[in-house]
Design a protein that fits this description.
By secondary structure, this protein is of the alpha+beta class. The chain has 13 helices and 19 strands. Strands 1, 10, 11, 12, 17, 18 and 19 form a seven-stranded antiparallel sheet that branches. Strands 2-9-4-7 form a four-stranded antiparallel sheet. β15 and β16 form a beta hairpin. Bound molecules: adenosine-3',5'-cyclic-monophosphate. Adenosine-3',5'-cyclic-monophosphate (CMP) binds next to β6 and α5. It holds the Pfam family cNMP_binding. This is Cyclic nucleotide-binding domain-containing protein 2.
Amino acid sequence: MFQMGSRACMDVHIWGAIEQKQSAIQMEDDKFPSKLVPITYKKPDWRTEEELKQLRNAMSSVQSYRRYSNNLQLLLAKVIRHQRFGRRRVVIKKGHIGNSFYFIYSGVVAVTKDEEGSSAFVDKEPTLIRRGAGFGEVSLLKGVKRNATIVCMEETELLVVDKEDFFAKKLDEVLKKEFEYRFSFYRSLDLLSSWSFQMIESMADHSKTEEFHYGRVIVKDTSDMANIIFMAKGRCDLLHIVDLTTCHSYKKWISQQTEFLKCDKCQFAPAAGTAAGTWSPSPAPNTEWKLGALNRSTCNRLSMTRFPRQAAPLLTPYGEIPKDLGAAVCIKVDSIHQGEIFGLNQYLGPDYLNDKRSMILVSQGAEILRVKRENFDALVDQPTLAKLKKLQNSYPR
Ligand SMILES: Nc1ncnc2c1ncn2[C@@H]1O[C@@H]2COP(=O)(O)O[C@H]2[C@H]1O
């Protein structure tokens, strides 16, 4: 139901591990060194060797820049211009003539169809382009108008390459290769085998490859997706979060652990007046709990488990578990592998048969292409719909 060739399997993950990985990645979010900003406003010939070296070093934190040859990196360091935009600022307007290409040094922008970019702030799943990626190449490469609006979702720093430099430094050749990669990927899919060159080209023009490290969340809630995800490389897992605070057997299990709570190192004192509906194990409030005789692995498991907002601190030998965590585990429902597609369930059967449970899609090290459902809907042809119908018959296995 969720993808082509579904393989259901069960596996339990602890949600805390995912969040830990995510925060580690978010810490990379550095700003452009302010002392280098004036250099980017100098004419290329006026930038000294030392200044170029500094610019190159700073830019090497931009993922797409690192992929370029040393020679191209140096040439770009000669021409880039730094620009900072606030939240809601429109950088590119759909339908305008393209004059520049942009790298995102810090921040996030959204791609929209409306000229003002305001839809990005109400869209529950906007198309985002993040730090390290570039945009604005399509109109330059093809000599056409801008195919979308780009609006800043937060304060964003951009490194701008003007059109003349874009071609003079041969950045166009690199970006053409990236386009060809996306095009060949879509062309290789059996599902799209009936599509014309123009249809595949449109898919490649309206998507970007996105890399996700292990543990990063790709889709927070799959119950009503606005995008279709194509898995270009690697794998991601579909996880269902189970809230243990509403689970009777979990509460019972926790209560059973009180038998062993004899050690001074680990103590749990439930808060007086714990709110109704949150986890409130017996014995009664204000009675001191002792989490003794818990072996190291049990403590580690508990420390990764999330505890309800209202609960009092749980002390373990490794420190206090944050109060605002809730108890939950993630159950792996499926894995999506290279060449597979996720988010087609609306084509696979009547709405009432679709699984509406909220799941999350988490990377196990993946490169994806994300296409807005409305773009796919506008292109999809009868042979493709027929193939999708057949997929419906093959589920559940
Ligand atoms: N779906 C999409 N995902 C990511 N980037 C996009 C998408 N659609 C358009 N873009 C980018 O938005 C830019 C708008 O200006 P261009 O048409 O020059 O180039 C376009 C692409 O770089």
